[in-house]
Design goal:
Layout lengths: L13 H10 L4 E4 L1 H7 L8 E4 L3 H10 L3 E6 L4 E6 L2 E7 L1 E6 L4 E5 L3 H6 L8 E3 L6 E3 L3 H7 L8 H7 L3 H12 L5 H9 L9 H12 L5 H9 L3 H4 L5 H17 L5 H7 L5 H10 L4 H11 L9 H7 L2 H10 L19 H6 L6 H16 L5 H18 L1
Parallel strand pairs: 2-5
Antiparallel strand pairs: 1-2, 1-8, 3-4, 4-5, 6-7, 8-9
Length: about 400
């Protein structure tokens, strides 16, 4: 692995050059994910910046240079520079004063290594000079990147004690970048897993869904289950559900369907809507996520033979999920546009039926037969309506 950033497109961005000019090249360093991802030849999403300047100085210097800033996390030393190439978070060097596993009290620092020491993993503690692009590696992060190893900075248990969410972050980063397991990290995460109970549900959900959104999280999720980590945050999951996740991922890949974390979460739960409701509430999922999870959990064997009917009555995405979750073929649903019933109540009234409950009953009856016959065209709808009207007159 070449530890060279000079070919990276993002280092040439005009907005970053303006930021360097505003803050001074010796006063800032690019840090974290942009360096890590560049060295791993994966797409760079965000560029973050560390600085010796205090936040109010950063904002004033940017203002003087015509760069707009937003105090997005000023209590923790972070402001965001709004650049033409995209936003950049600028954080003053920090050191931890105290932590309780959920939040940290920090003080500002002046040394790059002191700032690096409070980060979670060695591969996230890489700093680069903005002009020379020389990388400063204080804790062996380059060697860990080369080995595809996710390793805590310093003592793993001490780092987890500072922020319990690092347990789930470890598994997410290991699933994304790792190949060689770090036994100290694995054992620390397993031993300290009960501390996850003290975290906010939103933070738990954010990390869990981020893990499930990765291309193939099954090996990592299986390890989380085996080590007792998954059971703390998702006690409804048992071994057959881990196997179901593996089958689902294989089906997604075979059928060319993009990963979906809620679909994969449904695989880890019993197919019972009430349990899905409970989990959604516990994880504080959004209303849309909760509806998605409950619909997936309500899957039935009949979905496989009535997939288009399910898509019409429920939702196309839910129908695809329920077929995938049961190992079925989604090709009848892909690129299929859910039709609309080509019949309105006014057309029934025009045929002599008084407005009221009879119209609604006839409309429902025609719709049910239309669905059963596979959504035929308007000519068949007219025949179905004729039959229903004839029956209605006979009942009158």
């Amino acid at each position: 692995m070449s530890a060279d950033l000079k070919a990276a497109e993002w280092t040439e961005r005009e907005g970053l050059r303006a930021l360097i000019a505003a803050l001074g090249a010796e006063n800032i360093r690019w840090v974290g994910g942009a360096i890590r991802d560049t060295l791993l030849h994966t797409p760079v999403a965000d560029v973050d910046c560390a600085t010796v300047h205090l936040p109010d100085v950063v904002m004033q210097m940017c203002k003087d240079a015509g760069i707009r800033t937003v105090p997005t996390g000023i209590d923790h030393g972070t402001v965001t520079a709004v650049l033409r190439d995209g936003p950049v978070e600028i954080t003053t060097l920090r050191r931890d004063v105290s932590t309780d596993g959920r939040r940290a009290t920090v003080a500002f620092a002046q040394a790059w290594e002191e700032d690096a020491a409070r980060r979670d993993f060695t591969i996230n503690a890489l700093y680069a000079h903005p002009e020379t692009l020389e990388i400063s590696d204080y804790f062996g992060g380059l060697d860990d990147l080369a080995a595809r190893r996710v390793r805590f900075i310093g003592d793993a248990r001490a780092r987890i004690a500072e922020d319990h969410l690092r347990i789930l972050r470890y598994f997410r980063f290991q699933a994304r970048f790792g190949a060689e397991l770090d036994q100290e990290a694995e054992e620390a995460c397993a031993d300290l897993a009960p501390t996850l109970k003290g975290l906010s549900r939103e933070r738990i959900a954010m990390e869990l869904l981020a893990i499930l959104a990765l291309p193939n999280p099954h090996p990592t999720v299986a390890r989380m289950f085996a080590r007792g980590v998954l059971g703390v945050i998702l006690p409804e999951t048992c071994k057959p559900h881990i196997d179901a996740l593996e089958r689902l991922i294989a089906a997604e890949q075979d059928q060319g369907i993009a990963p979906d974390p809620i679909r994969r979460l449904a695989a880890l739960l019993p197919p019972i809507a009430e349990i899905a409701e409970t989990v959604a509430a516990r994880l504080r999922l959004s209303r849309a996520q909760r509806a998605h999870l409950v619909c997936d959990a309500d899957r039935q064997e009949s979905d496989l033979s009535h997939a288009r009917a399910l898509a019409y009555l429920e939702d196309l995405a839910c129908a695809i999920d329920r077929v995938l979750l049961q190992g079925g073929d989604t090709s009848p649903l892909r690129d299929w546009e859910v039709p609309r019933l080509p019949l309105k109540g006014g057309q029934i009234v025009a045929r002599g039926v008084a407005a009221g409950p009879d119209v609604a009953r006839i409309l429902r009856a025609v719709e049910a037969k239309w669905i059963e016959e596979g959504f035929p065209g308007e000519k068949r709808i007219a025949s179905l309506l004729d039959a229903e009207l004839a029956g209605h007159k006979g009942d009158s």
